[in-house]
Write a structure and sequence with these properties.
The structure is a single chain. It is built from 12 helices and no strands. Helix 2 crosses helix 3, helix 2 runs antiparallel to helix 7 and helix 10 crosses helix 11.
Length: about 250
């Protein structure tokens, strides 16, 4: 049990594995197989060892008299809040198999939406990364070789060219300052991201970014509508559904 708790704090179950789990469990329950037997069969076929240990713990809780939703609620690293909320409603209405199918379909749509967003952002991200590498190579290696050449011409260079060459020379001699500044900025961003005020400030900035701000807003609204729709369709009361969706 202590090993399981240590793993829980460090790992998360992939949404794809949760989708397959929901679909398989729904098929077993619809066929009239008791939930403990169904979980046992799924447990035997699981490839994800971490998820397997979670299902094993859930089976122990069910044998001890716990409900399926309560057993799932004890493992937030595998079952999101909306998932548990829908399960609780399904247990009250006796529609567990139907709701599990709905949850698997919801997760599938969510994965597809994430895939589309990732695909849309992949090309700009690659272009940005290549651009940064090209600029670093030019400033660090290419431009310093032209300094002596320009000095040999003994001509008055334009101001912009002189600034660029001076910056290149300084970066070549003090590259460790730039690396240290980048590391410090990264650590500061991580520290800020761990506080509520820091995350709120970060999100406020992200929403004001051109292009990306609108994209983020549409992603959040789309997810809000999908989660709320799934919970309402499963029979979860609106106040509870809104609270879980907000979380």
């Amino acid at each position: 049990k202590s090993i399981l708790q240590v793993e829980i704090t460090r790992k998360k179950v992939p949404r794809k594995d949760l989708m397959h789990f929901s679909r398989q469990l729904a098929v077993f329950i619809k066929a009239g197989i008791p939930i403990l037997d169904a979980l046992g069969a799924i447990h035997e076929e699981m490839g994800n060892k971490f998820f397997r240990s979670i299902v094993e713990d859930m089976m122990e809780q069910l044998r001890a008299g716990s409900t399926f939703a309560a057993a799932a609620a004890a493992h937030g690293e595998a079952f999101p809040a909306y998932f548990v909320g829908i399960l609780r409603s399904a247990e009250l209405t006796g529609r567990l198999d139907t709701v599990l199918i709905q949850l698997s379909e919801y997760i599938e749509r969510d994965l597809e939406a994430r895939r589309k967003v990732t695909s849309a952002l992949a090309y700009p991200a690659v272009i940005l990364a290549v651009s940064i590498v090209v600029v670093i190579v030019l400033v660090s290696f290419v431009l310093p070789r032209f300094v002596k050449f320009f000095e040999s011409l003994d001509a008055e260079l334009p101001l912009v060219t002189r600034i660029l060459l001076a910056a290149s020379t300084w970066l070549s001699a003090n590259w460790y300052v730039l690396v240290s500044a980048l590391l410090l900025g990264l650590l500061s961003a991580i520290a800020v991201n761990r506080t509520n005020r820091g995350r709120a400030a970060r999100d406020a900035v992200l929403l004001k970014l051109p292009v990306f701000g609108d994209l983020i807003q549409h992603i959040v609204l789309e997810r809000f509508c999908r989660i709320l729709s799934a919970m309402m369709e499963a029979g979860v009361p609106l106040p509870s559904a809104l609270a879980v969706t907000a979380d």
